[in-house]
Amino acid sequence: MRWLMVFEIKKVLQKKSTWIAFLLLFVLQTIMAFAGNLGTTYVNDTFLETHRERNAISRKYGLELSGRVIDTAFVEEILAANEKIDRNDNNYLLSDVYQSEVRKYDGVYGMICSWMGGNPYHISASMAEQMQSLRSTDVMQSLDLLRKLQRESAWEQFGLTNAEKEYWMQKEEKLPRQFTYQYADAYDMLTDMTSGSYMTHMMMAFLIAFIVGNIFMEEHSRKTDQLLLCTKYGRQKLYAAKILAGCGLSFMMTFLFWMVNLIGNLICFGPEGFSAAVQTVKRFWYSYDLSVGEVFLIESGLLFLASLLIGILTMVLSEALHNHIASLSIVIVGLFAARLVTIPLAWRMLSMLWNCLPINLLKTDQGFLDIRLFGAGGFRMTTWQAAPIFWLLISAALVLAGRFLYCKGQIKGR
Asked: Do residues 284 and 114 lie in contact, with contact meaning Cβ atoms separated by under 8 Å?
């Protein structure tokens, strides 16, 4: 059966359409992976710097400040420096004061602004008031209160049960009382919607559906199925070889795209920051004790599982419909429908299952950080823990359904 699988892979790789689709999307993935170093910044038609220079400066200053605890003294230092410029006037970017005294704090200043729901490039009056309030109180207590308010607001928004609230309070106890700043731009980008596993999955879903769907369809289109399906045991072995070939191709293509994305972002932003708390990079109110690097690894595992699921789904659909275009269309339309359609949080179970779809789960601020839990009694699982189990069960069911269709299929009149 091993040679059958190799033969099926070889048939796919010999097609020009396979390589055209692969190379087009691979080039696009490469451009996206290195996009952080592409382009230039202008301020009122005055050249400031290239994005590559910007990233190098941000990394230099970020590493200088990494490891400092976000305490009263540090916040006072940051705010005192930022008082020397007016962030609502973009011309501050061209000033010597900004470049020499303020810019080194941009990373941590932006982090604090995001905690408060603000934009570091446009400070509103209410935002300025919140920032100043940090100077009049103990920063640790102020941030504790801010996280509590945001956490309770999220709990209300998601409609958590008392058991779920108790679960998250237990997780909350494992978090540090004070957060530490760490430069982690690469892992921030690797878990971002525009450049992380989410976007890689978008491209892989199309590529896998286009390439892998042909594994079963070719014998029908070339009318060789009469010969292949006439043996008593050949059907089962051939079906297993085709499924394994499709899964192997899906995994290999995903690995190549994942590697390009990882290498590109690490080159643009540097490898530092794996251990940065996810609360400092993504959602300040989130209670699970994870680093942003661990989030990236979890999302990477989900990406590979999602690719296998898409591959199996496409192959089974193509065998059931005997039409590659139809199976491709179903996968692509389903992908965009899952992304564009929003299920209200009030429809609790349907909304939770909707967020388990790969395209929603890999969007960090949607499915991955859904704080509603699956389980009963004392057993609880987050969405990112439960979804892989669902995917594996669905994949197994699809494989069995496809096996039944393939092994019991009959040749109809031409």
From this structure: yes
